[in-house]
Amino acid sequence: MLPCQRHLFDIPADVAYLNCAYMSPLMKPVVEAGVAGLTRKAHPWELTPDKFFTGSDEFRTAAAQLVDCSAECIAIVPSASYGIATAARNLSLKKGQSVLVLAAQFPSNYYSWQRLAEDRGASLKVVAWPDDNDWTAAVLDSLSADVAIAALPHVHWTSGGRLDLVRIGAACRRVGAALALDLTQSLGALPFSVRDVQPDFAVAASYKWLLGPYSVGLLYVAPKLHGGKPLEENWIQRANASDFSSLTYTEDYDEGARRFDMGERSNFALLPAAERAMKQLLEWGVTQISETAGALNLQLASAAAELGFSAPAEPLRAAHYLALRRKAAIPRELPEMLARERVFVSVRGSSIRVTPNVYNTAEDCERLIACLRRIA
Ligand SMILES: Cc1ncc(COP(=O)(O)O)c(C=O)c1O
C-alpha cells in the first residue's frame, strides 16, 4: 500500500475526486513537464532535429516498462480508437468469421470492428453480460473456431468487471484468434504483461489510469506485425527521417513499431508530460497502486452495503473499480447532486462508478458515503 500521494496533485481539500475512470488529475511535476515542453516551441532555434527523436524514444521506453516489452514494440498514438483502427487494418478477418467483443463494450473498441466486419462479410459476436459477472468464463465459452479476432478490454468500463487475460490469451492462441486489447481503463492500475498475455495489439489512452495528458497514448504491437500497414504515411516513420537536409522519398520504414506512429508524434508538450507520469507510476509500482485504490474501494463497498448497494467482489471486479448498484434506480442527476457537495463520481448504466486513486483519502470515501446515505 502507498501512503496518500495527494500532495503531488493540485486537488483542493474540499474536493473528493473519485472519478479517475472519467479523467485523472495531473500531478504537479507532470504539468511542469508539459509546460516546459510547450515553452520550448517559443524558442524553435533550440528545437534541434535530434529532439524529434529523443523525446519519442524516452516515451517509448517508459511505456514499454509498463507493459513489459521492448521499446521497439511501442508506437505513439493520439487515442485508443487510433490504436484499435491500426489493429483492424492489420489483422486478418475473412468472410464468415467473427470478431468477439463484450456486451456494451466501449465504442472506441467497437466501431472499427463493426466496420471491418461489414467490409469483409464477417460478423460481430457479442459476449452477453454474464449474470454471475464472470466475464472470463463468458469469453472462454464464446471463443469458438469462427472467431478470428478477440477485441477486448482488461476491465469492463462501466462495471469494473475484470477479464483474466492470461487465460484468454492462451485460449485465443489455441483457436487461432488474434487478440487486440484496449487497456485504457486498466493500464497503470492493474498489473499487465504482454509476455504473459501475448496480445497482437494493446492500446491505452494516457489520460485516465496512466495519469497523463489528453490526446496521447501508447500502442503495443507484437514483433510479428512490425511489417504491417500504418494508418497514416508520414515522413518521420520512414528510415531516413533523421536526415533533415536531404529528406527524399524512401520505401523503407523506421525500425520496430515506429511505422505505426501518428503524424507529428514528437509532440513536445504532451510526450514529456505523459512520460513523467508513467515514470512516477513505475516508481510507485502498479501492484501497489492497485492495492491502494483497492483498499479504498473495499472500505467504500462495505459502507455502501449497509445502505443497500452491492458490487461484484474481487477478482471478478478489478480492485481499482467499484460499480455500486441497488434495487431502486440511481437518480440520473446524482453526479450533479454530488458535484454540488464537491464529491465527484460517474453514473454509467445502472451503476454509480467510483474510481479512486493514490490521491484519495479515507475522508473522500466517507464524504461519498454521507451523500449516498441522504439518497438511500
Ligand atoms: C475503455 C475505454 N477505452 C477508450 C476510451 C477513450 O477512447 P478514445 O481514446 O478513442 O477517445 C475510454 C474513455 O472513456 C474508455 O473508457
Distance between the termini: 31 Å
Number of helices in the DSSP assignment:
11
Number of separate strands = 12
The major β-sheet equals: 7 strands, mixed
Poorly predicted parts? none
Strand order of the largest sheet: 2-8-7-6-5-3-4
From the spread of the alpha carbons, the general shape counts as globular
List each distinct ligand once.
Answer: pyridoxal-5'-phosphate
Average residue pLDDT: 97
**String of helices and strands:** EHHEHEHEHEHEHEEHHEHEEEH
Residue share in helix:
25-40%
Tell me the fraction of residues in β-strands, as a range.
5-15%
Structural class: alpha/beta
Radius of gyration (Å): 21 Å
Short synopsis of the structure:
The chain contains eleven helices and twelve strands. The chain is an alpha/beta fold and 376 residues long. The mean pLDDT is 97.
Report on this model:
The protein has 376 residues and is α/β, with parallel strands linked by helices. The chain is 35% helix and 13% strand. It has a 7-stranded mixed beta sheet with strand order 2-8-7-6-5-3-4, with helices on both faces. A 3-stranded antiparallel beta sheet has the order 9-12-11, with helices on one face. β6 (178-182), α7 and β7 form a beta-alpha-beta unit. The chain is globular and about 70 Å long. It starts with 15 loop residues before the first strand and ends with a helix. Bound molecules: pyridoxal-5'-phosphate (PLP). Pyridoxal-5'-phosphate binds at residues 79-81, 106, 108-109, 153, 157, 182, 184-185, 205.
